[in-house]
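Researcher: I'd like a candidate sequence for this fold, 282 residues long. If you have to choose between options at a position, lean toward the conservative one.
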């Protein structure tokens, strides 16, 4: 599925423009060795859980990865995390410049919305609800990044850290589960259950990222390790220590696994996904 998603993502150049740095920048960022976790989760939910036609949700898969890639472009900017590498390659602002990176990130967020308007096999009212939800999620992700920037040099409480990391990471997982639920017209109780699962899975994912920044292999991760400490960021490792962060990660893993058993999805993918979150090396 990851290979199929990679084939969906490239954006065609506009013939009217001989040089299109924005499209080139977008495709450069999309070509990186991304995990494609969010669109894969959406595909599993849409096709395997709710029985939606794969051809009908292709725009949704593209939309999620466009939005996620845009968030990474913004995160990497010198004004934010000031990262030089992402997915094993130089970051976009290093290859082009900051202005092109900023405009490319904005371009990708708009392409994401454009793709959602192509969900023409679904009722227009449902698609409008989906777009409204996506807009709110995007706004919340921006708030999460601001919280992260404001936290530099500060020691956050565990509660504050959980809130920040949900907005930065967990809400992206939530969207991957909720958006296909909206298209399938799932009930409020079911949607609430998926949101709760995504909250704990997302925090477990972020804690693993924080641990990899301390213990990971730079060649495997595709970006320098120790970046969080260099930027004086408040992370689960800085707040709880390595062993405390590992315990917190396993606590959220167990809660998410218990929630999954209660939800009892038709497909075992999300159970394997939880195992992957805590055992991955990049």
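Model: Candidate sequence:
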């Amino acid at each position: 599925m990851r290979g199929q998603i990679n084939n969906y993502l490239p954006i065609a150049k506009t013939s009217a423009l001989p040089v299109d740095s924005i499209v080139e920048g977008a495709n450069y960022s999309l070509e990186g060795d991304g995990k494609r976790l969010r669109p894969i989760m959406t595909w599993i939910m849409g096709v395997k859980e709710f029985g939606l036609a794969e051809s009908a949700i292709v725009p949704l898969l593209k939309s999620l990865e466009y939005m996620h890639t845009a968030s990474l472009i913004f995160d990497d900017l010198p004004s934010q995390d000031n990262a030089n590498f992402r997915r094993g390659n130089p970051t976009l602002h290093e290859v082009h410049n900051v202005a092109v990176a900023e405009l490319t990130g904005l371009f990708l967020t708009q392409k994401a919305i454009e793709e959602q308007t192509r969900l023409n096999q679904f009722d227009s009212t449902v698609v409008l609800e989906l777009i409204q939800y996506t807009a709110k999620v995007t706004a919340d992700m921006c708030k999460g990044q601001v919280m992260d920037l404001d936290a530099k040099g500060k020691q956050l409480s565990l509660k504050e850290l959980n809130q920040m990391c949900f907005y930065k990471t967990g809400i992206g997982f939530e969207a991957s589960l909720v958006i296909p639920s909206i298209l399938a017209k799932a009930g409020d109780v079911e949607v609430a259950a998926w949101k709760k699962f995504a909250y704990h899975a997302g925090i477990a994912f972020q804690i693993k990222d924080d641990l990899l920044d301390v213990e990971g292999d730079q060649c495997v991760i595709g970006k320098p390790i120790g970046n969080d400490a260099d930027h004086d960021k408040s992370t689960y490792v800085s707040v709880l220590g390595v062993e405390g962060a590992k315990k917190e990660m396993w606590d959220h893993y167990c809660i998410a696994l218990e929630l999954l058993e209660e939800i009892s999805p038709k497909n075992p993918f999300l159970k394997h996904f939880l195992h992957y979150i805590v055992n991955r090396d990049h």
